[in-house]
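Standup notes, structure subgroup. Blocker cleared on the flavin mononucleotide input:
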Amino acid sequence: MYLVRLVYASRVVRPLDDGDLEQILHSARENNKGAAITGMLCFHRKFFLQCLEGSRSEVNRVYQHILNDKRHTEIVILDYQEIVSREFDEWAMGYMPESRLTESINMKYSGTKEFTPFEMLGESCHQMMIELKDTVPIV
Ligand SMILES: Cc1cc2nc3c(=O)[nH]c(=O)nc-3n(C[C@H](O)[C@H](O)[C@H](O)COP(=O)(O)O)c2cc1C
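Run returned:
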């Protein structure tokens, strides 16, 4: 089965703490290892931005679980592409915390220094995540 990439943004339903993020990342990484899914999750106060890569069937299946997760809402697909290779092949789910989403990277890929994934092109989100991966140590 060939590869696809799905990028979505969502909004948290309540303020999340480190424990909430740890739980999300733990189940994401465990499940994604079994499903051969790789990617990156960015979190900034109110918003998530996530990239999932893998076989079409597994990416679609995992995305259905994510859609039903009550911890976030307003989930919007920003980009869905067939791809020839993975960008995040080393991470079952790399995590990019708020402190790494700086004003300068936001300015480079959007019209404002705030992190506003709903206002961004899917391709800008994708390129921003690649730059973060290449320049910032992933947690
Ligand atoms: C922002 C966000 C990102 C998530 N990313 C993933 C993911 O990449 N893979 C995954 O399996 N679950 C992910 N989850 C968790 C799923 O929504 C769901 O809780 C999980 O698949 C259930 O698995 P479990 O029964 O093993 O806990 C994410 C949840 C949230 C809120």
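Discussed briefly. The radius of gyration is 14 Å.
Next: hand off to the docking folks.
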